[in-house]
Amino acid sequence: MTSTNIATETDAPDGTWSWRLRLAACMVIAILLVAIGDQYPFSPFPMYSKLDSSADVLYVADQNGKPLALGKLFNVGSAQAKKRFEKELLLLAQTRDYEKAKPEQVHAAAVKFLETLWKDRREHRTVKLDLTQLKAQIITISMDQNEQFQRAEQTLGSISLKP
Amino acid sequence: MIAKLKTWLRPAAFAWTPAEMFIARLGLALLLGYFAVRTHLIPFELVPEKENGLVKIMPLMWLLDPTALLVMRIVCGVTLVLFVFGLAPVLTFLPTLFTLCAMGSLRNSKGDIGHTTQVLAMSALAVWLCYVYAALRRREFWRVSVQTQRAAIFGIILMVSGSYVASGIVKMKATGGGWIGRVPSMSVQMIKANLSDYYSDPDDPISTTMTEKAPQFFIQHPVVAKVVFGTGLLLELGAFVLVLGRRWALLWGGSLVLMHAGISMLMDIEFWNHMALLGLTCVIPGVLALWRERRELVK
């Protein structure tokens, strides 16, 4: 019987893979994940791989400019919401970068994004807020030459909500 | 001393006890139950203009029907309980694996590709494939042997380690090998991550330490930033050692858990699935084995 003592475990005691085979399998899986890319359930986990010197944060505000709790109201986080807006922009302008797209394309993508977001709302929570408008806001954070952080904000688009 | 260390770190087989494997199965079932059944099985609008994963190869829109969601919840809940007790795992594990992959693919088809559940889904897939192999080759269907259970738990370690190495390779590939040189830009990403978290739920107060002071510190001390984040990259690229045996798994897996705890503190990004899988397959069994070893030495 195989000992369960960590000090006396031997390599491949019951016909399981040798450590070399295990290493090879691990490397093959890593390479396959990189090659396949993000196709659920597979992913090479590319978060923070590029490390750009500027970054955008998207949030959704009400008619008074007050940020709305995306998670509680729409079951989505800010980072995921930004990706959804970028997908709409990609379909309309063939770019994910709102600074490279035309203003009317950015506006149209923001409107489409907000309309889809509104359809996904948790009605029992949004109904309490007396919302008449949704605005998609984007904050750009960057670092200048003096290594100071800069922050710029703009409205990407908005939709009016019918009562 | 060096000879002793060499012996201690020699590659070895994973000889988990049935109790340790039960803990791992129970933990996996709880994670899957939470993510696949509780948080994933909710209806949402979908415009499949950019199909992802399983959506590309089979129709899955029927899953978004509220009745179908309710049925899947019940089926997954019941079969997961049977799976924990090791009953016909090829069958009892399949509904939850399918549901997790299907809902994850549908969610990712919305365009906001998240990375919360992939490691869990990949691990679940590896576990299920081990059971399929055992059913086909060894005719283990209703009950599986200890050997198969070990292979299934090892499948989780294999997927987790492969995903860390892949993540490290992607970082090197995206920056032409110069990722560490760009680490000072991580300060901007820190601000972004903390602001994203705030705007996801503005009712929670925002920490100026993490959106101002800590990023400024890393800008002023780039060497510290490179050491801190560079260590993370090394842990990812070197995660293949997780497969070398329980001691390596305990050492490296424990370090990766600490790395995630640090990232969570700095950037408010949680990696619960990674941490839980490392805990279940590397840290807990490793600590238990060390404790047993020590107890036997005392005797």
Descriptive account of the structure:
The complex is a heterodimer of chains A (163) and B (299). Chain A has 163 residues and is of the alpha+beta class. Chain A contains 5 helices and 3 strands; from the N terminus they run H-E-H-H-H-H-E-E. In chain A, strand 2 and strand 3 form a beta hairpin. In chain A, helix 3 crosses helix 4 (103-119). The longest helix of chain A is centred in the first third of the chain and has 18 residues, at 19-36. The radius of gyration of chain A is 24 Å and the shape is extended. Mean pLDDT of chain A is 86; it is low at 6-14. By secondary structure, chain B is mainly α. Chain B contains 12 helices and no strands.
Helices and strands, with pairings:
The complex is a heterodimer of chains A (163) and B (299).
Chain A: H1 19-36, E1 54-61, H2 70-74, H3 78-93, H4 103-119, H5 123-126, E2 133-143, E3 149-160
Antiparallel strand pairs in A: 1-2, 2-3
Helix pairs in contact in A: 3-4
Chain B: H1 2-8, H2 18-39, H3 66-84, H4 89-92, H5 94-108, H6 118-137, H7 146-174, H8 186-200, H9 208-220, H10 222-237, H11 246-267, H12 272-298
Helix pairs in contact in B: 2-3, 2-5, 2-7, 2-12, 5-6, 6-7, 7-10, 7-12, 8-9, 9-10, 11-12
